[in-house]
Amino acid sequence: MGMFLNPSNVAFQKAVNSKIYVDKTGLLEYTNSVVNTQQAFICNSRPRRFGKSMAADMLLAYYSKNNDSRELFAGLEIHGSADFEKYLNKYDVIYFDAQECIDYAQNIEETIAYITKCVLAELHEAYKDVLPSYCNTVAQALGYINAATSNKFVIIIDEWDAMFRVAPEKRELHEKYISFLRSLFKGASARRFMALAYITGILPIKKYNTQSTLNNFDEYTMVSPGPLAPYFGFTEAEVLALCQEYQKDFVSIKRWYDGYRLNGLHIYNPFAVTSLMLQGDFRSYWLQTGTYESIKNLIEINFDGLRTDIISALAGNNIKANPYFFQNDMETFDDKNDVLALLIHLGYLAYDPGKEEAYIPNEEIRTEFAKATKSAKWQELKNFFIESDKLLQAIKAGHGEEVAKIIETVHEQYISAIQYNDENSLSCVLAIAFLGTIDFYFRPVRELPAGKGFADFVYLPKPEYAASYPALVVELKWDKTAETALAQIKEKKYPQSLDGYSDEILLVGISYDKKTKEHSCVIEKW
């Protein structure tokens, strides 16, 4: 066994032996179905800590001929597959972590040479009888080996995009790296010696002039996860099973960590869920493993009103996004859609392809987003927080007139004259006006099934603030009185659904008159 050619299966063995291991070997059933086909080139991109490296270790353990992994996979889902034995430990596997190679090389410019030198050395040792000494590229060596022995290879690259993330400004180096990958994965020779190519990272394959130079790869991303959706992150069923095992409240976990929707599945970040199960505290786990500075800098560029969109997302609104023309690096940004696309691939935003909208997926990320934006030098954001804090205090004090004035101020500052009388815009304004709730309340629940209908907005205090901050049931009426809104809350029995969430519930009726452009508000304690 070598470091690059057929490494041991010990990394996957550690994953299986861990306190929490969720079986994702169903991925192998998919990869087996594409081995030695034109679909055998897979690029899978997911955010940090979504199980990418564990999956790469699993593929290595399963396919590498220098491992005997039969017992390791015994009892796991793939063991019952009809093709389990057919592909088990049948291939030479070349595996490397690009981030690790950058660290091991003398400098980042030497990374490609380092990978080439190491892989060639191990290939020459393993195939000394058939591999000519003058082979000086990995692709050439693999071609010679295949021609002499008919052996095919599985190539697995973890953190394949590290070059783009570590040195986003080194364009020339990026092109050399892509050329190196193209030599491995494109062309007639590659089609002969490649059984399966699997590369994984955070970013999709780099595009030049909107076209990928590795266009023979099927790409599975946070925007288009395809059949790989269940195998990265925890599904809701898997989280439910962990809640039962560790006696955790699923409703609370859902509120904190749910939010990604991939092919109709609710997907949770596995690092956050696992940390919660083992440590017990509801807080941000995932985002504390990396820095937010680069994201904050991107937002501060303020492409096409990006800051305003982020404010709206923090308030619980969805924002329009088109992530499909993203150049797939961390340096090339033509408009705000490129920045939003990067935030989606990094996991800081989730994406709804049906509505073509992005949103902050859950309370964990919303908390960190709020910290980052508050530390940024955005005067408009500071203004929103000041006004919103006044709003929250006015609601707690029952001062309806003051609440109406504050909402009117936000309405005038935030919405253009063209959209001023639009009912959807008014709903958006209301969410932004309540931005100050972010420290004390969970994300607003829109259209909460409650009583005999759906409440417009429900703000539930976080457990540590439930004794001092009331739950808020907010009903919005367009061209009707605030009293009508309040009456509907009572008639539909919305508050009855909130027993146990807070020591106090406030009913807030808000109306807007499109003729006078005036707001009104009435507040009543339940």
Distance between the termini: 70 Å
Strand arrangement, major sheet: 2-3-4-1-7
What structural class results from the helix and strand content?
A: alpha/beta
Estimated helix fraction:
40-55%
Q: Radius of gyration over alpha carbons? A: 27 Å
Largest sheet: 5 strands, parallel
Total DSSP helices: 22
What is the total tally of β strands? 18
Shape annotation: elongated
Mean pLDDT across residues = 88
- In the predicted model, the low-confidence regions spanning at least 5 consecutive residues are none
Into which percentage range does the β-strand content fall?
15-25%
Describe the structure.
The chain is an alpha/beta fold. It contains 22 helices and 18 strands. It has helices at residues 10-17, 26-34, 52-63, 70-73, 84-87, 98-104, 111-126, 138-149, 162-166, 171-185, 188-193, 236-246, 250-257, 270-279, 293-301, 306-314, 336-346, 363-375, 379-397, 400-414, 423-433, 482-491, and strands spanning 41-45, 92-97, 153-158, 194-201, 207-208, 211-212, 218-220, 234-235, 260-262, 265-268, 319-320, 350-352, 357-359, 445-450, 453-459, 471-478, 505-513, 518-525. The strands form five sheets. A five-stranded parallel sheet has the order 2-3-4-1-7. Strand 5 (207-208) and strand 6 form a beta hairpin. Helix 1 crosses helix 3 and helix 20 (400-414) crosses helix 21. The longest helix is centred in the last third of the chain and has 19 residues, at 379-397. The mean pLDDT is 88.
